Structures are given as C-alpha cells and as structure tokens.
Task: structure prediction
Amino acid sequence: MKQIEHEQHKRERVYALLDRLEIKYDVIEHTPIFTQEDSELRPVNTDAIIFKNLFLRNKDKSHYYLYSLPLTKRADLAAIAKALGESRLSFGDEHALQEKLNIRHGSVSFLNVIGSEGTDVSFLIDSSAFFCEKIGIHPNDNSATVILKPHDIERILSACGAEYRFLSLENRKPVITTAQREDAEEILRVQYTAYQSEAVIYNDFSIQPLMQTLEQAVAEYKDSLVLKAVLDGKVIGSVRAYEKEGTAYIGKLMVLPGYQDMGLGKRLLQSIENEFKGKRFELYTGAKSGKNLAFYEKNGYVRFKTVEAAPGLTLIYLEKPLFSAD
Result:
C-alpha cells in the first residue's frame, strides 16, 4: 500500500504542474504496464501515439539520457550515440534509474523530470513526436497514461529547468523559408519558449518578447521580412528584419532550446543577411547576454553603442558595416 501511495503522490505532482502551466490533458486509467510487450498485448484505448522511454548511459557512466520515442519505432543506439557525440550507449540499470530519477522500472517517461528537478539526466525527444496530433505518456505511474499535445513537451521541460534536445536521426536539416502571417501564432509560441532564458538572466518575465500579443506580432509582418526554420513540419526558429535608409535592422533571432548549439542560429542570421545584400546591418542585445554577444561578434558584428534602456537593463548595439571583412 505504501508503494501505491508513493506512485499516486508522484502522479498528482504531474497533474499539478500541468494545471499550473494551463496545459490541457486527458488521463486514462488502466492496469499497470511495465514493458513494450504489455503495451502491445493490452493497448491503451486512445487514438494518441503512445511513447516508450529508454534510460541510457554512455560508456563510462558519466552521463545518462532518457530518450522518448513512439512505441512502434525502433531505437538505433548507434545512431543516437553518434548524434550525441558519444562513442557508445547502453541501457542504464535499475539502481541508476532510482538514483537519478527516483522512479521504478515501468514508470519511466520525460515526465519524470517533475519532482526530479536538478537531475543531471539529459532528456531526448524523438522529433517524430511533432508528426503526432496527440501523444500518450506515463505520469510517473504506469497505471495511467496522460494524453498531451506535442508542442507542450517543451513547456514542461523548460518549466522544470531540464536539459533537453530533440533528435532527428534521419539527418534532415531544417528548411529556412519566408514566413507568412498565418505562421505568426506558431512563431509566437517559439518566441515565448526561446526567450525564457533571457528572462531568467534579467530576472524579468515582463520583457517585450514574452509580453507581445498575437495582434502585435502580426502587425510586424507589415514592415518586416520574417523567416522561419521548419523541421518535420514544426517551426523551430525564426528571425526578422526591416530596411530603413540603407540599414537592415535585425531582430528576434531565436531558436527553440532543444535545437540550439547546432548551427541553426548562424544559418538564420546568414539567411536574413542574404535577403538584404549590400546593406549595413544593425541589431542589439542585453549587456548581460554574454552568449548572444559572443555569437554576434563571431559572425562579424562589432559594438558601436551602449544604451541604458531601463533600470538594470543596458543594451549593446552591434553593427556589421557595409564593407565587412565577412
């Protein structure tokens, strides 16, 4: 009875977070499911795509991963290891699972992050999730399945401060194209997620990118060219710019957290620059945003102005002159 109460408590923590984030979800109760074979013999009565979860470790046990993918998809550990820069991956044992995520075998899912904040496990989500209308996952208890929308995965992991990324093992590259006004809502969702890290740096969650309304975002399409990066049918990044008196003003260069540090930001920046060839480029970022400053300077931008925009907020303006060495 004590174990049942323990699992119920973990499940309630999942529901509490989903409610706090205002995420819509359904719950299906069923007999406990421990293995993939259990899932196939006693399928959950839902039209959602059920996900399985693999607890993995690298060769020297210095890093652990939790990989979530559709139940019917085969996991290629060699391909996963290559994508992660690991020499080899194998399955983590029960002891490590308990120590790292405080969960028992059969109840593993990316929702284990809820209640395990601070874990050093990296969460991996197969990018095919975004082909699904709905996914099903255990809520830290294998006697229930929670039905979620794929775009809510990032909100959950970000809210828990988890290290995560999306894996596309078919070696597809994001396609960068011009965004249309009908893309504004999806790009705004990317914006709300991508700028969370900036809000943390400045301890201010009222920054403009997080407060912008859909109507305001759509209005920017009137004067700006907006580009989007799409992978597996999902917008994962964007950038925009407008021209005035020979200068192209670049703004809102963003990439979803799970896809950062993979070269997409550079591709987006180069793509928007190519749309305004022969122009001087100008952009800005906060003085505390060291990663952003290093990125822009590495890509040929130089600082030329500092502005005290508000108490505690200093903006650094950077430019790439018309005759840049790049």
About this structure: The mean pLDDT is 87. The chain has two domains: 2-167, 175-320. Residues 2-20 form the longest helix (19 residues). The two ends are 67 Å apart (CA to CA).
